[in-house]
Amino acid sequence: MPRRTELIEGLMQRHPLVPREAVIKEDLLRGGVAFDESALSDSANEASGDIKPKSYFIFSFDHGTLPELGAAALRRPPEEIVLTGGPYELRRTVVSVRVNPSSPYRVAADGDGVLGLYLDGQRISDVGVPPMPEYYRHKLANGKSVMEVAPTIQWGYLIYLTVFRVCQYFGAKEECQYCDINHNWRQHKAAGRPYTGVKPVEEVLEALEIIDKYDTAKTSTAYTLTGGAVTSQIGGKDEADFYGQYAKAIEERFPGRWIGKVVAQALPKEDVQRFHDYGVRIYHPNYEVWDRRLFELYCPGKERYVGRDEWHRRILDSAEVFGARNVIPNFVAGVEMAEPFGFKTVDEAIDSTVEGLRYFMAHGITPRFTTWCPEPTTPLGKANPLGAPLEYHVRLLQEYRATMEEFGLSSPPGYGPAGPGNAVFSVSSFMDSLPAEQAAPEAPEKV
Ligand code: SF4
User: Residue 99 forms beta bridges with which residues?
Assistant: First the structure.
């Protein structure tokens, strides 16, 4: 049996509590997927095709730069794929697309044009692609596309508003060592693609108007306001006022239409209160990696400007503003094991990560995670092109669920349905791995 197939089947056997869908999804997220020519649409124009293209909504989430990816970049791959059936009898599994031409996973069309996912040359599932949403076919008055201003991900559930496309933590001494936000901005500019650095509020409202008009099924349920850290000001506004102004404008124009979320730094409580006053309902002050030494090494800007201990204190304080259920800090699962500084064994990495989970969950706060994509223009991605061991990701899913159960917590609000076959969260399998009966409420609880 080829080695990668052996690896996933071995992990499925040893970890029966982790859905087999999640094993394959994690492997695709950490290592990427190749697209056969037959599986790429010919739509260089993102508004005219039948398939919803990859929007590059914040980071590149690819295993090569645009010039390296060639056809896969010019003929845009889909934003996500959905896996079903095959020898593992996969339930419906939505996976964010991370392109890697040398991955052992390949999406290809058969002689009848039917898409499948192949591993080590064997067909392991059917592949569905997201249809082009009607709202992507309409442009703003200034000619910008809705995909550029307000792309949707998670099968249309989440509107992803990266309103500041760069980060004020800039350069090797400040940027987080796994983050390619600044590179991704540069590469899209170099490729001549539209890529707005700071999105004007009016443009965001106009794009949302189009989504609201054409999303008649009301699939879009939440929006996330995010972008780089603001360490000084943008247009005279600090981080809370800068991101908060969008929430205020959205809530005034479309009161309660979507659940408002913000991914920002862990700010002092007065600033967090301003987020809430502006209408944000879920706060993501991401702590990135739990281990102290790794946080200091991987997040030098955050360490210098705020510091790990203060960051964690602020996360706990923000629960007094938003309610513990609505504070959902993210970490980047896998960087714990990155060479040369990371843990050498899966056991150590899991122990450390679980210590962090327990710290927050003991306060009623449920962290969540995205699966690390080792982008090649980042220091950690360059040194670790294969990412973290799959065993780490699979065991994390198991421990995450067990720790939540220990603290009596259920899946966090604002992520759609939980459970294998139900989840739409596409950049990690944590929602696929929680029990379906723990489906989150669609609106966050009141504080
Ligand atoms: S704070 Fe770190 S992870 Fe966030 S955008 Fe800036 S460099 Fe990237």
Answer: 33
Dist. CA 114–CA 242, nearest whole Å: 46
143 located within any domain? yes
Helix 3-14 × helix 20-31 angle, to 10°: 140
- From CA 199, how far away is CA 186, in angstroms rounded? 16
Closest atom of ligand 1 to CA, residue 58: 5
Choosing from 57, 61, 164, 169 the residue with most ligand 1 atoms within 8 A of its CB, the one to mutate for a pocket test is 169
Best residue for ligand 1 mutational test, from 59, 166, 167 (most atoms within 8 Å of Cβ): 167
pLDDT above 70: residue 46: no
What is the DSSP code string of 66-98? HHHHTHHHHSPPBSEEEEEETTTTEEEEEEE--
Mean per-residue pLDDT of the chain: 93
Q: Is 176 in the pocket of ligand 1 (CB under 6 A)?
A: yes
N-term to C-term CA, the chain? 53
Is 432 found in the same domain as 351? yes
Is pLDDT above 70 for 342?
Answer: yes
| Residue 34 in contact with ligand 1 by CB distance below 6 A | no
Ligand 1 pocket, 300 CB below 6 A? no
Q: Note whether 178 and 381 are within 8 A (CB).
A: yes
Same domain as 187, residue 222: yes
Between helix 239-253 and helix 269-278 the angle, nearest 10°, is: 20
Name the residue range of residue 196's domain: 135-438
Q: Using the mean position of ligand 1's atoms as its centre, give its distance from the Cα of residue 265 in Å.
A: 9
What is the Å distance from ligand 1's center to 343 Cα? 22
User: What interhelical angle do 390-406 and 346-361 show, nearest 10?
Assistant: 30
Our answer on whether the CB atom of 56 is closer than 6 Å to any ligand 1 atom is no
Q: Is position 10 within any domain? A: yes
Instruction: Give the mean model confidence (pLDDT) for residues 18-45.
Output: 88
Asked if 181 and 274 sit in the same domain, the reply is: yes
Mark whether 104 and 175 lie in a shared domain. no
**Tens of pLDDT, residues 381-427:** 999 999 999 999 999 999 999 999 999 999 999 999 999 999 999 99
**Cis? peptide before 329, omega within 30° of 0:** no
Confidence of residue 72 (pLDDT cuts 50, 70, 90): confident
Whether 229 lines ligand 1, by a CB cut-off of 6 Å, is: yes
Residues 86 and 213 in one domain: no
User: pLDDT per residue over 147-200, tens digit each?
Assistant: 999 999 999 999 999 999 999 998 889 999 999 898 888 888 888 877 778 999
